[in-house]
Amino acid sequence: MEAVTDMSESGKYEAFMKRIEDGDKIEMDDWMPDEYRTVLIKLISMHGISEIMGALPEKEWVPKAPGLGRKLGIMAKVQDEMGHGQLLLRVSEDLMKPLGRNRADIMDDLFEERLKFHNVFHMRTHTWADAGLIGWLVDGAAIITQTNMLGASYGPYARALKRICAEEVFHAQHGESIIMALAEGSPEQRKMLQDAIDRWWPSLLMFFGPESKDTTGSSKQDATIKYQIRTKTNEELRQSFLSKYVPRIHSLGLTIPDDTLRFDEATKKWEYRQPDWKEFKQIIGNEGPKSQDRLNLRRAAYENNAWVREALEA
Amino acid sequence: MEKTENGKFEGLTETDQEYLADLLKQLADDDYLLSFRSSEWLGLAPHIEEDVASASISQDMMGHASMYYGLLGDICGRDADDLAHFRKPADRRNSILTEKRNGEGEYLDAPKYDWAYHVVRNLYYNMHKKVKLDALKQSSCSPLRDVAAKAAMELYYHELHWRTWFIELMNSNDDAKARMTAALEKVNGECADLFHLGKYAEDITAKGYIAPEAEMKDSFRKEMEKVFGQTASVFSFPDAQKENGRLGGHTRDLEDALELMNEVYGSVPEAKW
Amino acid sequence: MKITPGSVRHWKHKGDKYMSGTFYNEYEVFSKRAPDKEFIHQFSLTAPNDEIAKVMAQENFLRREPVSDLWVVRREHILTLSEGKKHSLKRLDNKDYRNTKGYGYLRKKWRQYEQNPLDEKEIMGWAKE
Fold this sequence. Notes:
The complex is a heterotrimer of chains A (314), B (273) and C (129). Chain B is mostly helical. Chain B has helices at residues 14-39, 48-76, 80-86, 96-99, 115-136, 142-170, 174-188, 201-206, 213-228, 252-262; strands spanning 103-106, 109-113. Chain B has a single domain (14-262), classed as Up-down Bundle (Ferritin), CATH 1.20.1260. In chain B, 60% of the residues lie in helices and 3% in strands. Chain C has helices at residues 50-61, 105-112, 120-125; strands spanning 25-32, 40-47, 69-74. Chain C has a three-stranded antiparallel sheet, covered by helices on one side. Chain A: GO terms for molecular function: phenylacetyl-CoA 1,2-epoxidase activity.
């Protein structure tokens, strides 16, 4: 087989697609179509920066966590979120290196609002039950989207996801443990939990993104499926979430704020009330309830510490 | 004193228990408060990799506090969580250094935390802890010896971590040196009570629970001079300061910290969380 | 759910744009799980210098497993193969003579002489004798 550099562009593209179809893994220095690189940079930067931004709503509950064990558990969890951000940003940074960009540019893109973060992390947390719910259901949703990409054609991303998913299992159980204590607790505690579910339900449905780009005008799911970065569509993932979690929520005697929610035996699909996709667009456009507060927190910390990075520049 | 089947501290007189409880509060409250202050940095460190690495140290410290509260609970018959959350400021025995806020601003609202202060405070605290744990490993009280040996194992990394940051920043550019010097001055105003052993100091050392203050201070000075030897600065240590945390004197920062840390735990009486 | 937007944008960026980028030097991290195990690659991190890189490595990638040794290597010091050169790694599957597979008939032979074959399992087991 001839060296990749000697091929024509279309030859390279065909060889590349063949590698993907054969289940080979693409590595960072390998030839790849510009579109593949662009799609990956967009996807993984957003994923990584969402982990970094996702640390903030839970961080609010670190000092308040009730008990030494809870304080330790949530500290470890927030640390993992930052750690996932580290893994993913490293993958993304390697992809953008040939374009002359690095982590400073990613942070810049976040601050200048060119790089967006996941819709759930724009929301306010109200009580300790929200901290538990994030672990249980938000991380539960994240496990579903992330395991869907474990076989991704891009090797470094697949390897990062493997590490991440292993830790998400701990996160989900950390969340379940908080939820279980509240569900089995006093009437105040149970109410705290039910309120949290009522508040977060629309955000959880939005988590998986719109069914198609007809819903919101854009969706990157088509390209990611073409390049075998993921296999299932947004809607398939949402259905899988509902199948796994609706029965669990009900089993604890909790309710879901959607009276149209039902499993249709004929189509084998969940029917549910659509969340407000206009609102989704607003939220991911950094116009959610806590979007600017959290961005400002991140901006302030970044600028405040700029002297450290400057001091240690060679 | 040896462990017995019925309790780790059985056979101790009431006064001995009181001495030991005071020492345990010093050790536990130190780690508890500084772990909290460090955890406020979560997500806000100058570098993502550092954020992850130093979060482990905060957790380890909370773990050490938890072990000490466990022992304290054995003595006074209270739950470790209650001891951590419900004791009033006047009953706290932590050093002033461990309770001070990280800088201007609140942790959720445009905090202006000072990384130079964080590094210097942690270097001083951890080096002090190293000296103290070395002394506790020789304690006449065996449960204390056991816990000290466990904590010392993890402290090795903590001390290395903060020493590395200290030396790197002290030897970098002028701006950083100026910030580090300012942080050293600030820490010097808050650390005089680090080695103070509280109101039972003489009894605590006479019983052989821990080495005398002067002896530990001397070891500390030697260790710190080695670290400062790798920079262009000279080590100094204060003799006294306004409040002495070991005697229950504290700043407003402690009240604020405890209020935040107890918010949920104290919100529903008798609840399990 | 009704949206009440958070506080207004007040971002005026100074950032790290003027920096040369050496704060983000790349390092690869390898670790050993136990003294008798081999080094395996974990992941990469960025750090401004070797000293900082070394104190970042374990807690970033090895928070939940035992570690008995650690290597932190500057990525630029690792020699890699280009995509084309990776073709040099492929070979034919006709090298039974390098493996015990090519000598499997010996098992039968030794039986004829009423001896047990000295196969891999048997020989590696001598370590415990």
